[in-house]
Write a structure and sequence with these properties.
This protein has 396 residues and is α/β, with parallel strands linked by helices. The chain is 31% helix and 22% strand. The strands form four sheets. A six-stranded mixed sheet has the order 6-5-4-1-13-14. Strands 7-8-9-10-12-11 form a six-stranded mixed sheet, with helices on one face. A three-stranded parallel sheet has the order 15-16-17. Helix 2 links the parallel strand 4 and strand 5. The radius of gyration is 27 Å and the shape is elongated. The relative contact order is 0.10.
Length: 396
């Protein structure tokens, strides 16, 4: 049997104000092609299929199209909910969808209700007596304060609720193992110790996100994790697939992809990577404005989405406009003068603190917003305006 581990689709997300629905459609095309090319039996989606609890109509249509195409290609789909999804909405019609090969695991009641497949084939249903089976379990995002009581734990922490959930799964595996060999695959949307995070995993939980220890997943044949957007291996059988697209500039160096898992009667026979083509290159550039505009070594970034940090001692005038003359898709612009904070006042608040009088405050403001020091005529006009205000105050 062959499984494809994905997660964190975040359908409907934008990238610094740029809509990504077309890029997400292109990812679905690649996914369906991979399912066909690699003869995938089951596609795993470990949470955050949507980016919002209330996705737009066009976003829902995209997921609907993806599920139809994946099942038409011969694969079943097992999907859990993440912290960005509404578990109730995503889990709607789960019993009906199961008949079509889409298995939603978004409710606590489904924790110990696996999809059972014979280890040598992908047809759903109980295997014959003594035949090895693959049991696929789904652990949705567990918000501790909301699920602790249902899971029977006293401390509302990510560790306690995740431990309770995995214990339920182990109890079910133990019960089934009496009569047959069980190879367990667990989907979980969580932050496991040792995972490397990026800027685009927004914390939507109550009370913050706590990492759970890796040994909570000991004993499972394969654990398909979601939540972190970088594809990574925490152990040979515990992995994050990462997001299929980059959703922050901190992911500029990521090679996006998924994991292809082969399971036979003896267990996991192999894991290999499947890579996705990126729709646009991400560039993180840093340096003085003149160097960025003139150096040929940055020519590759002219068609990329760019995050630029300027290191000029003085903030250049019309910086964004000038950058976009060479890098039209500059989306983020920051300033970090070389030499540290003392090289030049980085913000208006620093100028305000240093200004000796009201005229200094006004001149500092103009310098901050325009990128140059006011000339003598402008200073004289400002001084006259301030004097008029002073005289009006005195006459009241």
């Amino acid at each position: 049997m062959r499984l494809l581990h994905t997660s964190d689709w975040h359908l409907g997300r934008s990238f610094h104000g740029v809509g990504m629905l077309d890029a997400q459609r292109a990812f679905v095309d690649q996914l369906v092609d991979a399912v066909t090319r690699h003869a995938v039996d089951v596609v795993l989606i470990a949470g955050d299929v949507y980016d919002r609890a209330l996705p737009g109509v066009d976003v829902v249509h995209l997921l609907d199209d993806a599920l139809v195409r994946l099942t038409s290609a011969g694969a079943q789909v097992v999907l859990t909910s993440g912290n960005h999804d509404s578990a109730i909405r995503l889990g709607f019609a789960s019993r009906l969808l199961e008949r079509g090969g889409v298995h939603l695991r978004t409710r606590l009641e489904s924790l110990d209700q696996p999809l059972l497949l014979p280890a040598g084939a992908a047809s759903a249903g109980e295997a014959s007596a003594g035949e090895a089976v693959v049991a696929i379990y789904g652990v949705p995002w567990l918000e501790p304060r909301l699920v602790a009581e249902q899971l029977g734990v006293q401390a509302a922490s990510h560790f306690e609720v995740t431990r309770a959930a995995t214990e339920r799964i182990r109890e079910d595996i133990e019960r089934r193992s009496v009569s047959q060999t069980v190879h367990s695959v667990v989907l979980a949307h969580t932050f496991a110790s040792g995972g490397i995070s990026s800027d685009s995993e927004r914390d939507l939980s109550i009370g913050g996100v706590g990492a759970v220890p890796l040994d909570l997943f000991d004993g499972f044949s394969y654990t398909a994790l979601g939540h972190l957007h970088g594809r990574q291996s925490l152990s040979p059988h515990v992995r994050y697939s990462g997001s299929p697209l980059a959703y922050s500039f901190s992911e500029a160096s990521h090679q996006k992809g998924a994991w292809l898992i082969d399971i036979d009667a003896d267990g996991v026979a192999g894991v290999q990577e499947v890579l996705w083509d990126a729709p646009r290159t991400l560039a993180v550039l840093r340096g003085p404005l003149a160097e960025l505009l003139e150096s040929p070594e940055h020519s590759w970034a002219e068609t990329a989405y760019c995050q630029v940090t300027l290191t000029d001692a003085q903030r250049p005038a019309r910086a964004m406009e000038r950058l976009r003359s060479r890098f039209p898709d500059t989306l983020v612009l920051g300033f970090d003068p070389e030499g540290g904070p003392g090289a030049a006042p980085a913000t208006y608040s620093s100028r305000l603190a240093e200004a000796p009088d009201d005229l200094g405050v006004c001149c500092g403001f103009l310098e901050h917003v325009r990128g140059r020091v006011p000339d003598d005529a402008e200073k004289a006009a400002l001084a006259g305006a301030l004097e008029n205000v002073r005289l009006q105050e005195v006459s009241r």
